[in-house]
């Protein structure tokens, strides 16, 4: 009897968990074709925008070595007789720089999807084709999102809304805008996998599952979870076990590949998790023995919790109503939350690609739950009314239930889309996103080609991040400073992003390299430096050489500093603030204009200057953000032009342009912030708040400056503008 009772309970539980029987087909009416056409239009608009946007960024030299240059070199090597050869890496703060001879891509990530991509690369080599392929694949994910929502919610309107949700999802756009990564393809591939799993199309399901697995080594965890999900909620034993078996076999293949191709026998990036243990077993044991500390440190901690909120709040946390779907995302979420690399839990980049499809399906299922509650409530209410006064109150008709369902569905879809649009304004990439900036191909970017043509195609090069993707089709290309001393050429742009350095250490490293005698200047101009090993070192400037320190000035050609010459009519706020220059006499350095740009979570300050006499003593510019209480939130002195072309080289009457690199202010406290500026004499080295008193005195010429330009009382700081940090 007891055995029979347990069997009965198991049967009841099994029936209750059988949530996904084979779906009923829906007729393809005119509404279907209109809805499908709308989805096609939205997907096409998405694809066209990102195609132009990403290609434009490549042309504007705004794409980075990691990972545009990496993927370009890897696929180029595959089509030129080498096996996924990679030499680009960040030697400053990453763990994949094993040898200057390079490693196989399979030592870092297992991405066999690169093999079919290399066939396209043979026809059109270059980073642009990778961005085009990725954009088309990602945009195609709108179709399975539409089909799934249409079948589950029995509504073409719902299908169109969920397809729009997919395309507008900020994390999806951030992954797409992070250039090419094989894992980004899974945003669409996993949605196709979900669709074929739900509609029980086994062959197409396994094809999509294989393509998904081929995108990154961590995807077997997601496919295994899908198999278990099918076992429990669809009760498809063969299909579910087949997916689990496929995932397990792929893990075995992963281990073999890493054993064969990694110089350390495992992925080089596993160092991001070594703080948890020396191997998989010790990591699992550590997690089981310290679960409370793990949750407090990697879930409830501010940045990690914000990451989870960022993923879920885009749909107003609606996806939380379907935990049996969200559980599929647990392995991917754990990899991001437990990583020592903060990029993985910022909600940006490609790290959320395989999580987004799960959130989309969880949102669909949450709407199903809400509609089921509405239908259940109507049925109970109708039953009570019919029992209480069947002769006085009519039973609620089926039409009223359908109307209520449509009303609730429209309300939920509206709230869902409003939520994602609200987050799109802060975290998306579209033109209506806050602080959006369209990439501009500047005259400076166009000048880079002259230097690129001077580098032999087979020469080894160490180059700055933004330059690497334009010269990465060679056997040995390095991200500066990797490869210094080994590379035949060094190609730098001091006006560009100095990653992986910070500004001051980058400048010191380049100056020291120019003076140590290993490389000489082959060509220089407009902030570009092309160095060749074996040429004589440039030495120090002949006039007043400084032998060491940050102020040392290598003897670079005069054409090098042409980048500080402002255009004839700069697009800037015009001001006149006269700073009293160091030294005797009535010498002034005048701030005559400024421009503040906010691309996303970054800040860039461009200032325009003029001197009235030659040989003004060197000064440096300091910018800072102050809150309403006068507390400093952020400060920087990374005005590159001053470092390389000091004020004693400025010509009187010329307008000089000084810009910072992009400065990340995403971790600055939210609220109003005042952008402040001061000039410090070269002898003042402090970058703390005490440097307020060391700043040069100034006078604001009121007739030539807006009323918003003010002096901070008791300091030598001038306030340029008040910005809102959200």
Detailed description of the structure:
By secondary structure, this protein is an alpha+beta fold. Helices cover 44% and strands 14% of the residues. The chain is built from 22 helices and 18 strands. The chain has helices spanning 2-17, 30-59, 65-78, 114-123, 127-140, 142-153, 156-168, 170-177, 186-198, 202-213, 219-234, 237-261, 280-289, 291-298, 302-313, 323-326, 330-338, 356-388, 398-427, 443-452, 503-515, 640-644, and strands spanning 85-86, 103-104, 461-463, 477-479, 489-493, 519-525, 528-533, 573-580, 588-597, 602-611, 619-626, 632-636, 656-659, 663-664, 671-681, 698-700, 710-711, 718-725. The strands form four sheets. Strands 8, 9, 10, 13, 14 and 16 form a six-stranded antiparallel sheet that branches. A five-stranded mixed sheet has the order 4-3-5-7-6, covered by helices on one side. A hairpin with a 6-residue loop joins strand 17 (710-711) and strand 18 (718-725). Helix 2 packs antiparallel against helix 5 (127-140), helix 6 runs parallel beside helix 18 (356-388) and helix 11 (219-234) runs antiparallel to helix 12 (237-261). The longest helix has 33 residues, at 356-388. It is globular. The termini are far apart. The mean pLDDT is 88.
